[in-house]
Automatic annotation (TrEMBL), chains A, B:
Organism: Tahibacter amnicola
Binding positions (ADP): 151-158
Designated name of the protein: Putative phosphoenolpyruvate synthase regulatory protein
Reactions accelerated catalytically: [pyruvate, water dikinase] + ADP = [pyruvate, water dikinase]-phosphate + AMP + H(+); [pyruvate, water dikinase]-phosphate + phosphate + H(+) = [pyruvate, water dikinase] + diphosphate
Highest taxon in the source lineage: Bacteria
UniProt entry keywords in alphabetical sequence: Kinase, Nucleotide-binding, Serine/threonine-protein kinase, Transferase
Amino acid sequence: MRRTIFYVSDGTGITAETIGHSVLTQFDGIDFDTFRIPFVDDDVKARAACLRIKTSYAQTGVRPIVINTVVDPSLTEILAGSGALMVDVFAPFIGPLELELGTPRSRHVNKAHGLVNFAEYEARINATNYALSHDDGVATNYADAEMILVGVSRSGKTPTCLYMALHYGVKAANYPLTDDDLEKLELPARLKPHRNRLYGLTIDAQRLTQVRENRRPGSRYATLDQCRWELAQADKLFRREGLPVQNTTHTSIEEIASKILSALGIEKHMF
Amino acid sequence: MRRTIFYVSDGTGITAETIGHSVLTQFDGIDFDTFRIPFVDDDVKARAACLRIKTSYAQTGVRPIVINTVVDPSLTEILAGSGALMVDVFAPFIGPLELELGTPRSRHVNKAHGLVNFAEYEARINATNYALSHDDGVATNYADAEMILVGVSRSGKTPTCLYMALHYGVKAANYPLTDDDLEKLELPARLKPHRNRLYGLTIDAQRLTQVRENRRPGSRYATLDQCRWELAQADKLFRREGLPVQNTTHTSIEEIASKILSALGIEKHMF
């Protein structure tokens, strides 16, 4: 069974898509064709969106579902003219919160996303630059690092650091364990003063060999034996040094990031 | 007025935080202290979360608000014991969707986030590696690029490319306009075959001079005159070449990304 979903928003549509995705994945056995219609913030765009949804209805013969975060009720009314099932994301929460907070909501279009706070923007950009300049052991002054991810090459350190920067404005450095570290089973001296900010990443050997093989086909670096040895040594080192560790094999970047922030006690807002 | 908000989830809490943030920013004049309690997936963790929320209630004397995406109703019941206002994110949507889709939802805990699809993970990692290796004109073979962002140094290209990679698995390269390009008002020959994938970024001169001054204090590169000249030339070049352009000064990375995807007609799911 297939159903067509439109995420319609007066902003980026990210909120609509996030909640829609979370809700729809709770329904098994249905394939969803999903489309984003962002920046629907005037009559003309609302009518264009309505036409697109109506056309999909006519073509598939099945009522589309609109996951809607448009704040202006007159635009929502235009969208409803498409005949789609309208799911209004904000509506159910506004009443109880107005009551609890004792104040009516304001109806600023685009307020939810797209509102730029320079301090926030600066934090994200600075943290991104930090991640790039402290990636893969390039810069080794960790004084400003809020966390330092440690692991063998291709264990997931770089994407996690970039995600931390873009989403939480957290300055995350990463340190790739060298053969020397792995043989000695010891962290390099310059990491030791930062022990409470260290977090280990590991990965299954089978998966690591695939990832490395894609990167450097036929290399010794990519062999299963080499991957197994490095990971076993890294695990010993993590245990000896008492570092918290996360296996990245079956874990999304979002989940890894969330676990590290919890473990290190870093309370930051998501952007 | 201050209110304490807890985002409680059996997964990362990202859905709870996204919807909560969107709804709460619609209420003016209230400061929210927000806390994440992720991975609440058993009784023990639910009781610990309940205690933390109850303690906050006792300390502040004001009822906390829980934005809840925990799927298991028995855990939600434990949380409700804290006395907080419970806002269940999924509840309002499940009924109408069960009716429309003709099937009950399944109650897989952690399904919404954290579920890892290798193909998805691979796409994100590959796109991130692509962005890093095609950043700042480093690699100049654009055959695989789904988009190429063009602009002067520090106009917002790199964070946008990384965001595209991490969120949409889109391979985005970026090309920093050189003095030579800006003097000749011409795109380099190697970009021309990819014209339908080019997108220009610009920024206000005042803002650019600040950003560059942070990076290279006292340099000619950071002077307002230099920034003004580069931006004016870049604007002429974008117009002459007919490129779509976005000013990044007052626009969040999310919004920039969403606009570029729309303009280039790239329909990708968010991860």
